[in-house]
Design a protein that fits this description.
Largest sheet: 7 strands, mixed
Shape: globular
Strand content: 25-35%
Number of strands: 18
Bound molecules: flavin-adenine dinucleotide
């Protein structure tokens, strides 16, 4: 029996879902709106909860070719540059969680998944195919396009990102909302990085009303810098790139330590994102209705302050494959399997969404709260930074 899954969106979540479902024996047709798969994005951190999944899919070696494996996570003051606390990763992460902590360029991870999808077979990738509308029919789900094309599958996964068209139709709950933060992102060739910042570590530079995160990507050839500031969104929060950003980023860092300012000076091209999210999930029916499921940012767009958006999309995909694998009875078994997927995922994702929000407040604390935070980090740093509930989750699929 051929079981056919339609996937809307070919980002990290969509490709991972396609790979996972194909590994579970499904035939997948994936529709991506872009004309080509391009080098969009910047750096991503992948905790051991995410790299464990890539390893289980046989991608550990491919990841090692493109990723960096920082030796530690360091929390620093953005104003003095002083280290407040650190968490060693080198060796310890693999020993404790069975997989490494990695940092990678989004397009490297994307390309890795695309190659795995193509090598594994069972997935048809369609570019220039914007999904605008779906229809649930007695035997499954139909997608149709303006040119008259119609495709039908047994189920549909909306992995079409934060502005998901599938979600808009499925839940009709309005768009994601700006969080009040802007993210400036850039990549600096490691050779141009000031010596004070050129370290094999993930550093979170915590300052009043802003924070910056630095880490190596591209197998250590580049340093990724993301600077998060509080600020009004532009008119269209979907716009993610802009002109003349270097001056804005440098101005935002005016009160920061010289190491950060020098690093920003060394950067040439910046991108800017308006951060948008939704409140934490409140139940499984926010992820699945009948034969239609949501996955990744389409289901749970979150603030990046726990560095888990892509990680949660990979976990969703692994769980989806696990639930779809045994399905034989499409009429009753398939909705039940998708219901199981949502039941397995929603509480964990809600916890990550809530923790990401809280981290933002802690990272941007001012005055007495800031002093209290720094003291807690000095006393309890390692315990606060290690997150067994997150990194140790048994999510391998
Ligand atoms: C500043 C910042 C820093 C971040 N840092 C981290 C980090 O360190 N670690 C981490 O894990 N995550 C991080 N994230 C989050 C991470 O990038 C996302 O959560 C993750 O990439 C989501 O993947 P996705 O596939 O769900 O969505 P997307 O990557 O948005 O993919 C959606 C895809 O669907 C396509 N699409 C959209 N609409 C349609 C349609 N109608 N029809 C067909 N195709 C469509 C899009 O073109 C796109 O290819 C960060 C995010 C930001 C903004």
């Amino acid at each position: 029996m051929t079981r056919q899954l339609l996937v809307a969106g070919g980002g990290i979540g969509g490709l991972a879902a396609a790979l996972s479902a194909a590994r579970a024996g499904w035939e997948v047709r994936l529709y991506e709106q872009a004309q080509v798969f391009s080098e969009v994005g910047a750096g991503l951190q992948l905790g051991p909860n995410a790299t464990r999944i890539l390893q289980a899919w046989g991608l550990g070696h491919a990841l090692a070719q493109v990723a960096s494996f920082p030796k530690r996570i360091s929390a620093r003051s953005s104003t003095s540059g002083r280290e407040l606390a650190s968490l060693p990763l080198d060796g310890r992460c693999i020993q404790r969680y069975g997989a490494p902590y990695a940092t990678v360029h989004r397009s490297d991870l994307h390309e890795m998944l695309r190659r795995a999808v193509q090598a594994g077979g069972g997935v048809h990738l369609h570019l220039a195919s914007e999904v605008a509308h779906f229809e649930v029919v007695p035997e499954g789900v139909q997608l149709s396009w303006a040119d008259g094309r119609i495709v039908e599958g047994d189920a549909l996964v909306g992995a079409d990102g934060v502005w998901s068209a599938v979600r808009a139709q499925l839940l009709a709950d309005g768009p994601a909302q700006p969080t009040g933060h802007l993210a400036f992102r850039t990549l600096v060739p490691m050779a141009d990085v000031p010596a004070a910042v050129r370290r094999q570590e993930v550093a979170a530079w915590l300052g009043p009303r802003l924070h910056a995160v630095t880490y190596p990507v591209r197998a250590g050839d580049m340093l990724n810098l993301v600077l998060i500031v509080q600020g009004e969104p532009p008119e269209d929060p979907r716009a993610w790139d802009d002109e003349g950003l270097a001056a804005d980023a440098q101005q935002a860092l005016a009160g920061s330590c010289s190491a950060l300012q020098d690093l920003a000076q060394a950067a040439s091209a910046w991108g800017r994102w308006t951060l948008c999210d939704r409140p934490p999930l409140t139940g499984p029916d926010a992820m699945v209705r009948g034969r239609v499921a949501l996955l990744g940012d389409a289901a749970h767009p979150m603030r990046p302050f726990l560095a888990q958006g892509a990680g949660m999309a990979l976990e969703d995909a692994a769980e989806l494959g696990r639930c779809l694998g045994p399905v034989q009875d499409l009429e009753l078994g398939l909705p039940a399997a998708l219901g199981r997927y949502a039941m397995q995922r929603w509480q964990r994702v809600a916890r990550v969404q809530a923790r990401s929000r809280r981290n933002g407040e802690v990272f941007h604390a001012t005055g007495l709260q800031r002093l209290g935070r720094d003291l807690s980090l000095a006393v309890l740093g390692r315990r606060l930074m290690d997150l067994p509930w997150l990194y140790g989750h048994p999510n391998v699929g």
